[in-house]
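COMPLEX REQUEST
Ligand: adenosine-5'-diphosphate
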Amino acid sequence: MDANQEIWQHIKEIVSKDVSGTSMDTWFNTAQVYEFTAERLVILEPSSLKRSILSSRFLPNIKAALQELLSADYEVAFIEKKPEEKEKPGQGQDGDDYTFDNFVVGPSNRFAYAAAKAVAQSQPSQYNPLYIHGPSGLGKTHLLYAIRHEAGKMHPEFKVVLARGADFMNELILAIQNGRKEEFRIKYRDCDMLLIDDIQIIAGKQSTEEEIFQIFNTLFEARKTIVFTSDRPPQEMALLSDRIRSRLSMGLLADISTPDFETRAAIVLNKSQQLNMNLSMDVVNYIADNITSNVRQLEGAVKKIHAHRELMGGEVSLSNVSEILKDMYREKTAYVPTPDDIIDETAKYYGISPKDLRGKSRTREVAQARHIAMYLIRQLTNLSLQDVGRIFDRDHTTVLNSLSNVEARISREKDFNLVLKDITSNINSRDD
Ligand code: ADP
Ligand code: MG
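STATUS: Structure written out below.
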């Protein structure tokens, strides 16, 4: 029996002095201790009836037993089931294959690479926090995992915590709901290195910002290493509070931009070698010439050619390659977010429900969010004014008014563009 169940056994023995055997058998027979910390005892009981009886009728007995056993006051909480195991960050894998060794360095990323490496190797870091920013698909996540990998090799005793900004936020929300904020804080504060990927998601989410700020200060003062990645520099995050913006900016900012031709070609070579595939130089150059903005796409192209070769056999000629890649372009340009995605993200951004956003409310905040959602749907999809009107159950002149409202704000309000950029980026990084 583990320590928790042992405690529970003792508690039940004490409680049973005052409670009948039948009651004990009825109400205490399936409950288990989920967790027992310095402050709280959390009891797992799937039945809602039993949970409610335990907490309404027997809570004083349980607390008294704890007092008798351990001479201290404990909070007692009941849960229905174990919180779900949290997914690891990254695309379902642990990012072990993202290392400094397989990161191709060129002028567009050399500085970020060097900074990341320095941070991974030296402790305490001279560059704290390190803030790596750049558009999607250029290697930010790769560098973050490489830092963890390298730090793990150099300092095996280090406790490294790596999380996506979105996970951080969701965990925090859950922790607040379950009254477990302290555990949340401990998890993030009690580490030697905190690495947060895609921090831009927290912009404008006040309680998340505040929590990051606190954790950040604690770690910073303890000279622990902190690294953030983001799709834009702090000063371009419109909704970020000034306080946290200046905190984020006070370390080292390193940007990654789109790779030049030589770097793209080197990446193609590198990725094809990883797949044990030898591409001729003209094929490599062709890919590097045609896929220019995004390393993730370069990688996708190489994988596609590899799959093609596996399936069809033989060598890959230049004409094959242009065929295969043409297909890729088509897929790429065919991608558009759905109106639902846009509505969800806009609503989330303003902390209102998608239902309200679609509804009839005329409060200023909801109406403005609605204007923005309409505007973004027009921008990001091929839908007509009528189509957009139908989505919101309004006619096309209403949609037109909304669009001009947004356009007026773009020209009038200095930072409004950034708001649109924020939301668009959230839309594009859904389930990324
Ligand atoms: P971001 O986080 O900036 O959106 P990722 O780090 O996820 O981008 O990179 C996308 C893909 O491209 C990953 O598979 C990564 O390994 C690869 N990649 C990006 N930059 C490089 C590079 N310089 N060398 C090798 N692979 C790279
Ligand atoms: Mg990333």
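REMARKS: The radius of gyration is 27 Å. The chain has 20 helices and eight strands.
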